[in-house]
C-alpha cells in the first residue's frame, strides 16, 4: 500500500497553513511551497483517477474539471473582494488565459504526445463538436460581444446584459453536463476500450473512492492556495522583467490548471485521447459557465466595475483558436501535425502576452 497519496495533500495543506501563519514568506519557505504545489498536483491526479475508475467516464473527468473550477472561482471572487475596482479586468484575463491555455496548450500537448506514442488516435466526433459549439457560444457571450455592444462603453455590459450573460452561461453549461452525463453519455465514451489500462482492473471500493474524493479536494485547495502564496513572487519577477501585468494572470492560471493538464497528458499517452478531450473541453466550459455567473453576482452585489470585452489582439487569438480547434476536432482522428499547430498557437499567445 502506497502512503504518498495520503501524505502529499496533507503535507501541502500543512505548508499552506504555515505560509499563511507566517505572513510574507522567505526564499526557503517559497521553495518548499513550490515543491509542495508540485506534490499536490501529482496527488490530485492520482485521486482523480481513482474516482474516475469508480464512477466511469465521463463522470470522472467531470469531477476533476468542476472541482478545479469551483476552487478557481472562489479564488477570483476573493481577489475581487480584496482588490475592489482595481480587479475589474481580473475575471476576463483569467477566463481568457484558461481558454487559451486549454484550447491551444493542453489540447496541443495531448495530441502531440499521443501522436508520438501511437501515430494516430481517435475520439468521439459527436461529443467533441458539441463541446466546442458550446464553448464558442460561451466565449462569444462573455469575452467577445462586450467589445461591440453600444449600451455600455469600454468592453463592459450593462446590468441587464450582465444578468443575461450570467444566466445564459450557467444554463448552457448545465445543459451540456446533462447531455454529457445522461442524455448522450455515449458521445463522450472512448471509441474503443482496448487501450484503457483500467478496463480490466477491479474498481476501488466505495469507501476508497470517497476517501480519494476528499483528498482530491484537499489537494486542489492546496494547489490554489499555494499558487496564491507564490503569486507575489511572480508579480515581483514580472515587474522586474518589465513584462505586462497580464502575464501574472497567465502564470497563475497555468499553476491552477496543472492537475488537469497532467491528467489529460497521461491519458493521451495511454491512448485514451477521449478522456483527454473530455478533461480539456470540459474544463474550458466550466471555467466560463461557472465563473461568469459567480463574478456577475459578485460585481452586482459589491457594485464593482467588470470589464469583460477583449482587446483586438486577444480577439484575433481567440478566433484563431476556435478555427483551428474546429479543424482538429472535425475529423475524430488526430496526428502530431494537429498537436504542433496548437502548440505553435500557444507559443504565439505566450509571446504576444510578453511582447504585445
UniProtKB/TrEMBL annotation:
Signal peptide: none
Membrane topology: Multi-pass membrane protein
Keywords: Membrane, Transmembrane, Transmembrane helix
Presence of keyword Magnesium: no
Superkingdom per UniProt: Bacteria
A GO molecular function held by the record: potassium:proton antiporter activity
Main location: membrane
Locations listed in the record: Membrane
Transmembrane residue ranges: 29-47, 59-83, 95-116, 128-148, 160-179, 207-226, 246-265, 277-302, 314-332, 339-355
Segments forming domain Sodium/calcium exchanger membrane region: 28-181, 212-354
One Gene Ontology term, aspect cellular component: plasma membrane
This protein's name: Ionic transporter y4hA
Source organism per UniProt: Aquariibacter albus
